[in-house]
Amino acid sequence: MSTITTEELSATTLLRFATAGSVDDGKSTLVGRLLHDSKSVLTDQLEAVQRVSADRGQDAPDLALLTDGLRAEREQGITIDVAYRYFATPRRRFILADTPGHVQYTRNMVTGASTAELTVILVDARNGVVEQTRRHAAIAALLRVPHVVLAVNKMDLVEYKETVFAAIAEEFTAYASELGVPEITAIPISALAGDNVVEPSAHMDWYGGPTFLEHLESVPVAHDLSHCHARLPVQYVIRPQSADLPDYRGYAGQIAAGTFRVGEAVTVLPSGRATKISGIDLLGKPVRTAWTTQSVTLLLEDDIDISRGDLIVPSKDAPATTQDVEATVCHVADAPLTVGHRVLLKHGTRTVKAIVKDIPSRLTLDDLSLHPHPGQLVANDIGRVKIRTAEPLPVDSYADSRRTGSFILIDPADGTTLTAGMVGESFAAPEPVKDASDDDGWDF
Questions:
Q1: What's the predicted TM-score (pTM) here?
Q2: Which of 264, 289, 317 is at the close of a domain?
């Protein structure tokens, strides 16, 4: 049985989480209140917010300004970009992604939640569950975020009524459970007044659960440091060509998943060549073991032709290579994705030409039904796609690895990101796939 090092143990105290919700649901105010009441705001930051708030004629500091950093965001009072914040309490360290609520910026919610272990979905207690709430829940389910918090905000505007909270929590829980969200926690809050954010609310004695911060500090975080599939996408081949290191050849990259050990048999994909790890360099020093998220250089026993985009994996746990990728995607570009669309597919550090062979279905958010063969996906649509790549790719199922089971589609003309994809993911049994004709000379 392998032992867990101090570094591995300390990593479990980090929680990555994202906030999402409709426009004006109070995401930025919640984040600002959380940072302010947990004493995570620097004095000069708070003073700047107080000055801006006073200039606007506001009696109290507008805590939303702590996260709305772009000038356009402050002028319009909305969140446009993903705002990342780093803070800590005595119990845990946090990386927070405050994502936009406006429909046209849903693509940024995908970015913020893609690495999150918890997603906070805000709902205005006056409006309840709306279409954007359902869309955010679907994205959280699609991205396999392990924990979802439903924060029913602005409870002060509905007189802190338990019946209002209970009805919203019941509706959302039923919907998210049908999507496959594994854990849902509902918390009634008022971000503006501070109720149940960091301190318990004096106005909702009927609620006996944790405050928002207490839940963030106590929710279990599973870092698969030793039990998931080990994967190293090669980013750079290091050959110093120096007198001190005449024969040095290392393969550098960030470990996407799992653990590598010196002496372990590995295979390089897509070539399939096998060898063993002769050494691991970390921060210029040799180590015996390296794990997820560490940036390392692997040294191999055999001289193999390896370049950027190749994938180093344990020989006993190598994924299959394929040119046919089937996935559930969230389309994020303004231009639609159509059958026959020529794209670039970026998987890890490798980018290859590809064609969209079919779009079997599109998810309908209202009732979670599948609309068969829509022909295209427009901005913010979630659907199934079949893609044929020009070269074989070693892909995992997204259920097995969020890092090596995901990809993006890119417009080859201007480099625009079109679509975020999760290999093998599905909300329901896939629709039968019809053959799509392709007479444009891009046959792979």
A1: 0.76
A2: 317
